[in-house]
Amino acid sequence: MFLGTYTPKLDDKGRLTLPAKYRDELAGGLMITKGQDHSLTVYPRDEFAALAERAAAASRSNPNMRAYLRNLAASTDEQRPDSQGRITLSTSHRAYAGLTKDCVVIGSVNYLEIWNAESWAAYLTEHEEGFSEARDEVLRDIL
């Protein structure tokens, strides 16, 4: 499981060091793609393969599904962390997520998210009250 919040720095070559506690799980390879809310999503290869299989099986007669599948496939980059646990984020991924030197990596249970530090702080501020006030309509299938 991917849990926690980490604050690695993006270096001048666009490399980000993954949190040490996740390196073994991601050593066999990972997939980086555009995420929701202008973040990046980092999936273990197997988790991404399952997601891609579900997306590919959906009806392609739905224009929204076609657009999602195209965007998912076109924006995904396969990576293998180097010996120091670093991955290289493409220029387009860095631009999409507005990544600068200060980044935040958060665990999202079965994947990681990479955020611009300021964007993550703003997201937390905006959604903190909603988290503490979550009701049955949001939580009924969880709790």
UniProtKB/TrEMBL annotation:
Superkingdom of the organism of origin: Bacteria
Record keywords: Cytoplasm, DNA-binding, Repeat, Transcription, Transcription regulation
Domain (SpoVT-AbrB) ranges: 5-47, 76-119
Subcellular location: Cytoplasm, Nucleoid
Listed PANTHER family: TRANSCRIPTIONAL REGULATOR MRAZ
Family named by the database record: Belongs to the MraZ family.
Quaternary structure note: Forms oligomers.
Protein name from the UniProt record: Transcriptional regulator MraZ
Organism: Rhodococcus artemisiae
